[in-house]
Fold these 4 entries.
Entry 1:
Amino acid sequence: MQLLDIGVNLGHESFQHDLDEVLQRAARHGVSRMILTGASREGSAHALALAKAHPGKLFATAGVHPHHAIDYDDATDTQLRELAHDPVVRAIGETGLDYNRNYSPREVQLQVFERQLQIAVDMQKPLFLHQRDAHEDFVAVLRRYRDRVPAAVVHCFTDTDEALRDYLALDCHIGITGWICDERRGTHLRALVREIPANRLMIETDAPYLLPRTVRPQPKHRRNEPMYLKHICEEIARDRGEPAEVTAANSTATAEAFFGLSRACS
């Protein structure tokens, strides 16, 4: 079983002391490749540097999360475009809208979202998207750009069946995390994953966040790791009514096509 984690935050400080061990544990659990999420100007540069240190195994995105939209300026836009020229950067993002916490004003989020959508159009790279409590505005903006970018994935999908239908209608891919393992807030996803076509479903840990609550034993440090992607895959497979090997093979092939990765990289 070979897995590809499409969203992992290895630049997080919690990985500084044992990154090599984290990568080794991931490999032992079949996670041979990962896409490192760029969520800020500095974080995107760091993600690229980490990926370059592990060629063929780690790749990166370049973008600014809506939480940090208030910090986006012309210099940020220029740097993201420079980073996006590197072939190791496989998508633009994490970008989108987050009205749950509003760390940045909504009008600023909207402006910054559009600027990054334009980068994806200009660079012809896929989009790595974030949306929380902002579905209406998010879809309205994305709809204006969708046919001008090669692909788009709504990362860490946790929304409703209506939102899922809207994204699939826009020919978006869907990223599922360990949120599906959360009996408090993710049970609705167990039914919804059956509705995602195999060639639109990708899986991710979003590590170090969202440790699957069904992992046993639970690690004392409560940090999520790429090694737990196998557990997430098995949970999704059970909910889809198919063998885990099928879910793994399909999601990996879908991610390879989405990010333009060859099987030779594995």
Entry 2:
Amino acid sequence: MTKEYDLVIIGAGTGGYVAAIRASQLGMKVAVVEREKLGGTCLHKGCIPSKALLRSAEVYKTVQNSDEFGVENAAPVLNFLKVQERKQRIVDQLHKGVQHLMKKGKIDIYEGYGRILGPSIFSPSPGTISIEKNDGSENDMIVPKYVLIATGSKPKTLPGLPSSDHIMTSDEALQLNELPESITIIGGGVIGIEWASMLADFGVNVTVLEYLPRILPLEDEDISKEMLRSMKKKGVKIITNAKVLSEQVKEESSSIVVPYEYKEEVKEIRSEKVLVSIGRIANTNDIGLQNTDINVDKDVIVVNENYQTKESHIYAIGDVIGGLQLAHVASHEGIAAVEHMAGGTPHRVQETMVAKCTYSSPEVASVGLTEAAAREEGFNVKTGTFSFKAIGKALVYGDTSGFVKFVSNSENDDLLGVHMIGPHVTDMISEAALAKMLDATHWEVGETIHPHPSLSEAIGEAALAVDGKAIHGG
């Protein structure tokens, strides 16, 4: 016997479970199909566990430097097993929270692998979901009015890499029981830099190989330069314009040798471990798309402004549709999709309004256009920058690295972008995101009274600096 639902969601990651909760609030009868654990990649293999490790690395580094704060302490000892245990406690607590939310919303959970079927005895149109259950028993069939695909993504790998326990993606790295003495990180994007920062703070010898001319290539160029300086200060070796020769990577004894092209020369780097962090690829295979008219372009599902696929009753959100592959983006896309199903007129997520964060040390956060992108789009640009070195709270905190940068339209003062690198900027970026959402000008942000002493004073000063009016600027 088949069960009928208003909405069936394939995938219970951040996008999927948030969409399920919103649909339940709107009165829909909802089911979620998840092959692993509620919470998906973000909770179990991404955002939360990696940030837990980053926090432990930050504490370890702080304790090592405690003399600077007048706290004399014997040399700290890092117990990495306890670091991992703490990480898992956090993940488990949040997992229980998601389970509670599903129960509260009376959302049915199917543990297994969901596939979309074509027209059948169950439905004249594609959309019936066949669930291959984890316990191996007979498949369940559920018939929804709407389907939401939220299957997320998985780490990309380099073709030709040998199979080795010494070569990892972030999935495997999160499960390490002990730290390596050395590691080569292939990829200097957000994930690569977070891991480089963390492992360097833990005392690992880190080398980053980046194919493009600069690390954090999607951030403002000034941010990339400052991060490069900070990573070098930590002892991280960063090589840009490096093309990894993946088919020539070889395992020797207890190490991995990674050849790469640099300035028309082939060089090698040897390390105990290799971490591949070159991005993520959408999970579109084997979910039944071939049974529908859904279009897939460049490995992601094509959707319209309401997150509908070519099959108008089947929606898709999150990493599986490309764009900004961020948990908070997937959540808002999921909410927008179910509100459209319910007859509402939600607003599509606009990339220039989304705050992006890198949780390295120093942290990076940004919203809107970079200076280069703004110029490429034809804007006449003016900028203002303010260093944390002139912020009292940063001195008190013990970290004056980085700055805040504003990018504005010189013709009408519209705020085009805000870019930050420094202490706790991932907690500060929401002010800039709100300013963007409200279509504020830089001078309106500058006129906002920021509390003293606070790190957020750098935001107000950078905004004033656009017109040369920063109070504490040199």
Entry 3:
Amino acid sequence: MGRAWLAAVGAEAGAELAGVVDLDVDAARRALADAGLPGVPVGTDAVDLARATGARAVVDVTVPAAHHPVTTAALFAGLPVLGEKPAAATVAETLSLVAAAEVTGQLFMVSQSRRYNPQLAAFRRQAGTLGRPGLLTTEFFRAPRFGGFREEMAHPLLVDMAIHPFDTARYLLDAEPVSVYCESFNPPWSWYSGDAAASAVFEMTGGVRYAYTGSWCSPWRETSWNGAWRLSGEHGTASWDGDHDPEVERAPAPAGEEARGGAAGGESTGEGIAGALTAFLAALDGGPVPRGEVHENVLSLAMVEAAVASATSGERVLVDDVLERAHAEALATEAREDVRARLASWTSVRAALGTERGTELGTELGTELGAARGARP
């Protein structure tokens, strides 16, 4: 993904690559040479290299375990961050990063690249014409042989992949997770050590259900990497195979009834990680707080942790319980007093992540980043 981001930054007219950081500087130099950029500075510390080069932001493409320390250091150095999913390795670490973003007033955006897909945006618009949603489903069946760490994980499908459809479900439904019941297992022919298949049913706000079924060891007749989607609503059904234009069948909308959701904002920014980069740059130029801003992104990772907890315990899990446990863990383990104080000030995690908080952060970002107009990573 580091090489993919090198290409995305290189293709973005409004961005300039200031440097590349890797614990193995030779790996950084090789990637730059392969990209035709052999003269770009390299280093082993993002903050140090940013100061040396005058960089104004960081794109964090480290492994998940490094997201928390790298992002925290960047935010407190005055550097906004665009990071790969997940925001951090755990919800507790992600809450720490939420508090760090609040304390510093810096933007931390998580690149949920599926949200920058024009077909998905069209599917969301179609869904908005169906009246009240009832059931959203995703089927995901692939058979990748990655090798390496994924094949040794306890829950490779849920932890490494499911955050994409879980985040997409929130986006499509304009709803948040309430609870989940999940079962995970490993088919007998699986080449994974952990559970490579899972089924989960989420209750979302408003009573709508989201059902996910997937497998990473299901050869032949594979679905799209985006999954296959179906939304059953009050006035019809919309479906999307993940690779082509979505389809909808519906009754005429009742007179005077407006479409739920309508056109999703910010859909002209580009596709995939390029779209996320463009939205990030626009925010640094004083534009709107982008989709994937860390407050908005937490509940996608919370859905993953809740699903794993349910699969492990065999019981239905409340997402609020996951959030409150994560909050307690974040308070107990936070090393920075200012971040711990901000965490302690929250009356509830949901309140801290809510719409009112997002509006307030947008005002802060407009003030803190106003001087950064025209600045680029």
Entry 4:
Amino acid sequence: MLSHSIYIFTAYIIDRIVGDPRALPHPVVLMGKCISLLEKVIRKFVVKEKALKLAGLLFPILIAGGTYGIVALLLYTISLVNHWLAVIAEIWLISTTVATKGLGDAGMEVYRHLKNNDLSKARQSLGMIVGRDTEELDEGEISRGAVETVAENIVDAIISPFCYALIGGAPLAMAYRAVNTLDSMIGYKNEKYQNLGWASARFDDLLNYVPARLTALFMLLACWVKRLDVRNAWAMIKRDAKRHPSPNSGIPEAATAGALAIQLGGTNFYNGVASHRAKMGEPNRLIESDDIIRTIEVMRTTSMICVLLFFTISLLVAYYIS
């Protein structure tokens, strides 16, 4: 556990400094290709919808299970060559499962375009990180989209990977990332994926359940550090988090809405079709571009608190065990 917390701490520093360099291959890209290939194979041999639901179990079993096995075998093989080379490989792999820098950079790109009064580029940048239509959004709606995206991803792009890395190192963190990638690719409740993707979506909800509730604690501490409204953040978590269609994503969004005294949620359009999302928080003021900065600061502070707490707890456990 102590070694894993040291790996997490180091991986976090690497992610904050380097992020995900485009020149280096990212494991998630390979996961995505494997998921697409498996989908093609299943759809070729499985025709009936009821059978597709059963076949949907193959995705978390083969993709997540396979990812765990491959990473574990890779690290073991490297360790036979050199122990420290295996340590470096594990730290790097853990760093690829988190996106603190990438998330912050994406939000900052939208923010800079808004500050330059370039709504066209701001819409384009937002469109790179959200699924909703962005072509007609005004400044307030662009800001809302960026705030919601940064807040929502605190769980699955930061806290959850760290939780699973603490428990099982890079193999488990990568397996979690595989499940999360499955959910983002096929975990939709639409006609195409309601049967094939149900297992991936449920498994993702299950794996994020505990980390999402830890995120609530870390975010409240972060809000206190940043001198935001902690009481209102907690009140909105209790009142509004359950209104979100996801049992987990509503927690960081509701916390953000309460801390910043804004209202998130509302109507989004996907391929021209309106989707009404439950509103979280009170509209005490209009959302502004600076709220993107505030949300990024909360995200970064939350991630630091998580890493430091995991490291401290690991030290205490190691001390008392010894």
